[in-house]
Structures are given as C-alpha cells and as structure tokens.
Amino acid sequence: MKAFTFERAHSPADAAAKAVATPGSTFIAGGTNLLDLMKLQIETPRHLIDVNRLGLDKIEGVDGGGVRIGALVRNTDLAADARVRKDYGVLSRALLAGASGQLRNKATTAGNLLQRTRCPYFYDTNQACNKRKPGSGCAAIGGFNRNLAIMGTSEACIATQPSDMAVAMRVLDAGVETVKPDGTTRTIPIADFHRLPGDTPNIETNLIPGEFITAVTLPKPIGGTHIYQKVRDRASYAFALISVAAVVQPDGRGRFAFGGLAHKPWRVEAAERLSGAKEIAGTVLAGAKTTPQNAFKVPLVERTLGAVLAEAKG
Amino acid sequence: MNDRTPETASTVTRRGVLTTSAVGAAAAALPAPVLAAGKPEPARSVPTMPVTLKVNGRTRELELDPRVTLLDALREHLSLTGTKKGCDHGQCGACTVIVNGRRINSCLTLAAMHDGDAVTTIEGLGTPDKLHPMQAAFVKHDGYQCGYCTPGQICSAVSTIAEIKEGIPSHVSGDLTVKPQMTVTEMRERMSGNICRCGAYSNIIDAMSEVAGIDQGGVDA
Ligand SMILES: Cc1cc2nc3c(=O)[nH]c(=O)nc-3n(C[C@H](O)[C@H](O)[C@H](O)COP(=O)(O)OP(=O)(O)OC[C@H]3O[C@@H](n4cnc5c(N)ncnc54)[C@H](O)[C@@H]3O)c2cc1C
Ligand code: SF4
Ligand code: FES
Ligand code: FES
C-alpha cells in the first residue's frame, strides 16, 4: 500500500467537505473492496476518511411506507432485517448470494454499491486498462473476457458492475441519498446512479467528487414473489456470470433486473409489458454485443429467466 | 552491473520495502537502469496513530502506521500469530477473527478502523488446557491436516453457529420469514468463506455438527 494519512469524519457533511479539502482523499467504509485494491496499488489514496462512526447504521421506516437504509448498514444486517426479509425479499436474497459471511459482516450498503469491477485486467497493473489508467487501452477486448459485459459496452471498456445487491436495488427502484461537499443533499434514482462506460470507464457513477452517500431508500413494498437467481461457477462465494432479480405478481407480470451483463444493473422496463422468457429476454438483450467467449450469456439469460418465471408460478 | 553500493542499498527502509512489496518480486529481477526508469516515488512518511484494541479481553495500546491491517497488528505487533495470513485479499478466510461479536476477515480492515473494538482471536477462544468446545471438536474429528486454515475455520465455525442461532438467514435458507434451521446445509453455505487446501471440509462439518448438536445420520452429507 502507498502511504496515506487517516482521519475520522464527524458527520456526513463533514465527510463530504473533508473529501474535497484534502487532495487524494477517499472514504473508507467496510474497506473490503478499497483495501484489496490499495494493496495492489490500483487505488492509491493519499488520505483516508473513515466514515464508520457516523450513526448511519440504521434501517428505518419512512412516511408513505418505504424504508431508509443507512449507508453504513452492514450487508449481514440488511439481509437479516425483518422488514426487508418480509417486504423486499429479493434484496435479502441478492445480498446473501454475494461474498462470504465474514465479508457481509463488514461490507456496507454504500460500499457495496460502489464496489469496482472484477475484470481480470483491471486487477493486473501490468495490463492495459482504460478504467485503471485512462487512455492505456483495453486488454479485455480481444483477451480473456468470458465474464465481461454484453450490454451497453463501448470501444473503451466491456467491464461489468459486479454487485449483486445493486441488481436488487434496481428492481426495487431504490434511491441513493447523498450530501455534496457544499452541504446540499439530493436523491439519485438507482437507474441513474451507475454509468455506462462510454469514453470514460474510469467514471463509474454520477456522484460528483466528494459526494457522500448517506442512505439508500426503498419505495413502499410492491408485494409479489421475490426471487434472486444467480448463476456462477461454483455454488457459493463466487461472482455472478449472470443474475436475475425479479418481483413477479400473481398475474404473471413482473419486474426484472439483470446482473453480469453491463457496467450497471441492466433493466429494460419496456420488456416488462411482455410475457414469456423468450420475449422478455429478447427485448432486454436487444443490441447485445458478444464475444466468442461470453456469447453464452445470451441463452443463459433466457433460460435463467424461464426458471425464475416457473419458480414464481410455484 | 548494479552500481549501488552496499551502503545505499542498506538505507532502504522497512517501510520502503513494504510499500513496494506488490512489485518487489518483479522489480528485484530488473537491472538498475530499468528500475530508475520506473521512477519509484520516494517513500512518503506519515505520522503513526495511537490505536487501542481490546484483544482477548486485554487492552492493548499500539502506535501504528495507518496502513497496518488488523491482521498485521495482531501478528506483527502483538505477536498473536495464531491468526494466519493466507491470501491477504479476503479470499481464503485464514485471517478470520471475531470483532465485537462478528467474524470478519482481519486482512481487509485497518487496525485504525477498530480503535476501541473487542477482538477475539483463536488464542482467546480457549487455551491448551481449557479448549473451546469447537477447538476440542476439531481435534476429535481431525478437522485439519496442515492446520494453516484452522484458526480461521474455528473462529468462523463458532460464529456460524452463533449466526444461525441469532436467526441470520443464508443463501440456502428456505423461507426468509422464519428462523433458519441448524442444519449441515446451512453450516456448509456459511463456511464457504473459509478455504482449506487440505480439503478437511467433511471433518470440519463433523466437528461443527457435534458442537451444534446435529445428529448427521448421513443426511445432507
Ligand atoms: C473475495 C470476495 C468476494 C466477493 N464476492 C462478492 C459477490 O459475490 N457479490 C458481490 O456483490 N460482492 C462481492 N464482493 C464485494 C463486496 O460486496 C464489496 O467488497 C463490499 O460490498 C464493499 O463494501 P465496503 O463497505 O467494504 O466498501 P469499501 O471498500 O469501504 O468502499 C468501496 C468504495 O465505496 C466508497 N464509499 C464507501 N462508502 C461510501 C459512502 N457512504 N459514500 C461515498 N462513497 C463511499 C469508498 O470510497 C470506496 O471507493 C466480494 C468481495 C471479496 C473480497
Ligand atoms: S474491460 Fe474495462 S476494466 Fe477491463 S481491461 Fe478493459 S477497460 Fe479495463
Ligand atoms: S488472509 Fe484474509 S481472507 Fe485470506
Ligand atoms: S488444514 Fe491445511 S489448509 Fe486446511
């Protein structure tokens, strides 16, 4: 790790203000992604702002029937929350399908949303990677790209966003509450939170520099059957090849978001007016750009969606 | 030819070595001019920080470089070498310790983030004369071969049973609205963050089953 200085923030607004006051600052929450990347010198912050003790570790009901999840709520606690298990089961399921028990005890809601790609070339500092080193090229295009994106890719980057939780947040239409360095606050709809790679794969979200996440909100429960189906190379403790987050209503209509396909959780609302796995998958995957190694994801999405629809029917 | 004198070579500080350890192996094989072209940044010196940890019931006051992980604080600064470093990247579970009642990977957290926290390591679970029931069960069931992953496995196993009792669900829990059951399937899923290269998994599950009071009777195995 490169040397850094360390301080503790006193409030969310203080964290945001501190982040722009000291050049090279980065927030540290659970640290399970950031420290991994710092050890490899993929991330080299000069100053860490510890945001763990700001009291943002509560899950509360809000007026109108939704919930507000503090940014520092640990993945284990979010998955185990009685209200989340009852009304937002897809979120519990997605969290429990990710990482390991130890990691979920440490990983936070905001940190999970902001975890960086698992593209093998991003992790290898000897390789060209536009995300890690803008302008250096992309070793994955034409390299080993079996698990990389097929939707919304660019000439610059074909990486995926690896968070399982984010896929469930997308299907639930979550909102990301933030405070900016100037002290103003806003809520970013999850659909607009992560960006497609375009020419700037190094910019992964629409947060501005120093903007600090305080909470994630979920609108009031929508009922239905909640399913998170993750397909991976081993049964536990592996990232998704693809995943489907679904909330299916008794009439068979549903909402579907997909992981492992793109630089953001992938959801095409227009497809949700259709019925049948083939039709829905066909619309969701319109414009897919595959490589010989990852073309398997196209039929895999349709089949996994088919399994999800069958499971929802009971 | 390497034109550095032994004197200049010996001025390389431990911190300098540590900061470049990720590239150290590759750099060592390069001739000096190439190294110079790589323009290594001079090691930046940052102030150390006071960190107080309550480890296995004892309050320990440390003065640490902010980079020191909880794992390195335990092993290198407190000489508690029971906790092991396997991957140093959250992938193997060898470094599992219990902090404020929850198991975590001590390699992926900074000691400075745990100022004031209570840490239980394998040394704190039991002693050679008075083993923790999980330690005794691992011995009885041969829950290891080389033993390297074992301290992490035991800390994780103790926490796994506690998490099931607490009602925390897992990926294999059927109905999310009821408490998870104490089963072998549940324990296996929850232990997936602890890798054992010797493949002692089935004996580990036998040890855990005994402590959890599950009669395996061939079910699930
Ligand atoms: C071996 C391994 C396996 C894994 N498997 C999976 C998996 O299967 N599925 C999955 O989804 N994930 C998986 N993960 C990733 C894991 O979920 C993330 O590491 C974790 O969620 C990150 O959360 P954190 O709190 O530790 O983030 P940190 O590492 O603390 O932070 C991550 C980023 O978020 C920023 N940040 C944190 N909090 C805030 C805030 N409040 N406001 C603004 N910025 C903030 C930090 O500055 C940093 O850039 C795995 C990780 C490991 C190591
Ligand atoms: S796909 Fe993106 S992250 Fe992977 S090497 Fe290319 S630019 Fe880097
Ligand atoms: S050493 Fe921490 S998980 Fe491997
Ligand atoms: S006993 Fe050798 S790695 Fe597990």
From TrEMBL, chain A:
Matching Pfam families: FAD_binding_5 (PF00941)
Keywords, sorted A to Z: FAD, Flavoprotein
Example GO molecular function: oxidoreductase activity
UniProt domain FAD-binding PCMH-type: residue ranges: 1-223
Origin superkingdom: Bacteria
SUPFAM superfamilies: CO dehydrogenase flavoprotein C-terminal domain-like, FAD-binding/transporter-associated domain-like
InterPro entries with a match to the protein in the record: CO_DH_flav_C, CO_DH_flav_C_dom_sf, Diverse_Substr_Oxidored, FAD-bd_PCMH, FAD-bd_PCMH-like_sf, FAD-bd_PCMH_sub1, FAD-bd_PCMH_sub2, Mopterin_DH_FAD-bd
PROSITE patterns registered for this protein in UniProt: FAD_PCMH (PS51387)
Name of the molecule in the record: Xanthine dehydrogenase family protein subunit M
Source organism of this protein record: Sphingomonas oligophenolica
TrEMBL record, chain B:
Claim: Signal is one of the keywords in the record: yes
Signal peptide location: 1-36
InterPro entries tied to this protein: 2Fe-2S-bd (IPR002888), 2Fe-2S-bd_dom_sf (IPR036884), 2Fe-2S_ferredoxin-like_sf (IPR036010), 2Fe-2S_ferredoxin-type (IPR001041), 2Fe2S_fd_BS (IPR006058), Aldehyde_Oxdr_Iron-Sulfur (IPR052914), Beta-grasp_dom_sf (IPR012675), TAT_signal (IPR006311)
One Gene Ontology molecular-function label: metal ion binding
Recorded superkingdom: Bacteria
PROSITE patterns (UniProt xref): 2FE2S_FER_1, 2FE2S_FER_2, TAT
Signal keyword on record: yes
Pfam families, alphabetized: Fer2 (PF00111), Fer2_2 (PF01799)
Listed GO CC annotations: periplasmic space
Keywords noted in UniProt: 2Fe-2S, Iron, Iron-sulfur, Metal-binding, Oxidoreductase, Signal
Domain 2Fe-2S ferredoxin-type per the UniProt entry, residue ranges: 49-125
NCBIfam families listed in its UniProt record: PRK11433.1, TAT_signal_seq
Protein name: Aldehyde dehydrogenase iron-sulfur subunit
Species name: Sphingomonas oligophenolica
